[in-house]
Amino acid sequence: MNRLVIMTVGKTHSGKTTFAKALEKELHNSVVIDQDNHAEFLHSYYQTLLPKQGPNVIKYAITKTIVDYAVNETNCHIIRCNSHRSRKSRLDQLAYYHEKGFTSILVNFEIPTHVLEERIAKSNRSKNVLRVASTFEEVLTRQENETNKGDILAPVEGEANHLFVIKNSDDIRSVIEIIVNLAQHVGI
User: Fold this and answer.
1) Partners of 33 in the β-ladder
2) Of 17, 21, 102, 136, which sits most exposed with the smallest number of CB within 10 A?
């Protein structure tokens, strides 16, 4: 049985969650795993356990547990909805999925900064997912400053079995159709 793992790559407010939810509706037997949900859960119920500085180890542990369960205990296609901007982290995760027999897909969101700024200005999104920054404007500024430094790099051909780039909202429909088509050819 071959399954797909679809990983989104992009900055805040680039459309990763909207895409993942739309794909989940059309990709039979799939599940979205989104770390923002885990951050919101921790903020709502376990705020005292959140680290004051450094990596959010508890959030990563929750995500890992959910991923491992989905990989080992279900036959679902997995849609990983996170920024995935670190090449090393992305490649490590892809290696795990490849080892488990998944066909991998990266969906890179290359949305212009002015569009992201407009989306943030209009957004009603909860800031409870934020731990280090206090606003999404701060998050975007940090992400802009990190881009192409160290291993914060856009995906390239060969990192995954398939790579798609979304440059605007019009690209979403066609990418979803291609992924759904691919799923029909991998055996589920």
Assistant:
1) 80
2) 21
Whether 82 has a pLDDT exceeding 50, the answer reads yes
Q: What percent of the chain has pLDDT over 90?
A: 88
Handedness of CA 110, 77, 126, 87 (dihedral sign): negative
- Torsions phi, psi of 134, nearest 5? -105, -15
| CA distance linking residue 165 with residue 149, whole number of Å | 20
Residues 6+ apart with CB under 8 A from 54: none
Can you spell out the DSSP letters for the chain?
Answer: ---EEEEEE--TTSSHHHHHHHHHHHSTTEEEEEHHHHHHHHHHH-GGGS-SSS--HHHHHHHHHHHHHHHHH---EEEEES---BHHHHHHHHHHHHHTTPEEEEEEE---HHHHHHHHHH----GGG-SS-SSHHHHHHHHHHHTTSTTB----TTSSSEEEEE-STHHHHHHHHHHHHHHHHHT-
Kindly report the average pLDDT of the chain as a whole number.
Answer: 94
